[in-house]
Here is the input.
Amino acid sequence: MWHVARAGDRALLVTLGKAIDPALLAQVLAFDQALQERRPEGLLDAIPAYASVLCRYDPAITTAERLEKGIRQLEGRLRSSPSFGPIVEIPTTYDGPDLGDVAAKTDLSTTAVIELHSGREYLVYCVGFAPGFTYCGALDDQLVVPRRASPRARVAAGSVGIAGSQTGIYAVESPGGWNLIGRTDLRLFDPAADPPARFQPGDRLRFVPVR
Amino acid sequence: MIEVINPGRWTTIQDRGRPGRERFGIPPGGAADWFAAAVANRLAGNHPDAALLECTAAGPSLRFDSDGVVAVTGALAAGTETWLPRLVTRGSTFAIGAVGPGLRSYAAVRGGIDVPVVLGSRSFCQRGTFGGGFGRPLAEGDRLTVGDFVNGDPPQAAWPAGHRLSMLGPWEVRVIAGPHTDAFDRFALKRLTDIACRATPALDRMGMRLQTLGLHLRADEILTTPVTAGAVQVTPSGEMIVLLADHPTTGGYPVIATVVTADLPLLAQVRPGDTIRFREVDLAEADRARRRLDGWLEPET
Here is the structure.
């Protein structure tokens, strides 16, 4: 059962589940797709992330009740399996300032950390927080470490980090608490590009070590 | 052309923002006090989408190389009268000066500030460091082009005093419960609305951190969701963060309540040290409050 909650007086937050899970993401993307194709009256924008979708609406055109009804009509009628994107390679230099720290915390060699991180493909679950920031999962269980105790005031664009079961790429310079293990020259956010972000939820990627 | 003689503390070019791009991590942005900005454009005889200057704490000094009209609204400005259109003459310098009570003044120049549209808006985006003409706040020596985004003549009279919002705390700010109500116990919002919160110096266009002495709300962890301006987040250490126009598009802290659209302008005027009290309302009251401000902005017929 979807959970529909008010997010202020101009948006509804629709929660489909509570886990970072490919099947849930597939449902979120199918819901998002359905909203694009048959836009309920008054819906302005839908923003998907992990297991939820924020639906912004124009209260001059519709009401929270009417929009929720329109949303509920889609529940259980979604295409079951939208396909995820092709695998994009991220050339990555594994020289992050936290690489040694991650190796120590996981009781692995830095070479093993790099092999485990680059040895699988990831699914993009969310592009958010800051422009273009790309959240991916899931990490090998052996690489799971908490965020840094104190966040850095500045993390450079292109930094590749890990935190919990996720790995992510900073697209613009921002503060950040993830453990930085590498960096890429790939530009993930470009205000002049269409779309401005390189990735969107449902895309797949793989980190490729470069020297 | 307008030359920036003194940029002020933190003066940025803003308009109504760039909604519809949050799925790329891009904040909706736009003037933090949407109501004062809308009035400034009305008083300058501008189109509602015209870009203007958001002046924080201390405003700029501007030299005009042609005659013009400027309207300053929002927080009071030491250097000029507010809430009415003012004529400026060619070669003269227009100084906004210290800003307050309130934190943000809006200066609309008749015709609007003409800078390139980036991702649907002329607004400066702090996190992305793009937009606003320069990808940064104004600096000394910047030259601003005046546009032609006019919409009728500037009105003759000042904006009615009864159609302005308070610029002075203590602030009463209305909220709607949720969306992450389930992460809290059933008395949590009541406990929050029973106390006075204090704004800390950690305050910018993205959000503000509040001190809530004697209150420590516990919440379950949530999976990151998209968030909105006005969201009142509770961190694991029990601190409160209220999100503003340039907010991160997603958040992993549970949101206990969301400030109603009609009171977002109040949040934009809160200064560090000010007292905020939240009051829970239902959607009907939030709708009435928003329609009241929209009604003030409707063109007279």
Summary: The first strand of chain B starts at residue 2 and ends at 6. Chain B has four helices and 18 strands. The mean pLDDT of chain B is 96. The radius of gyration of chain B is 19 Å.
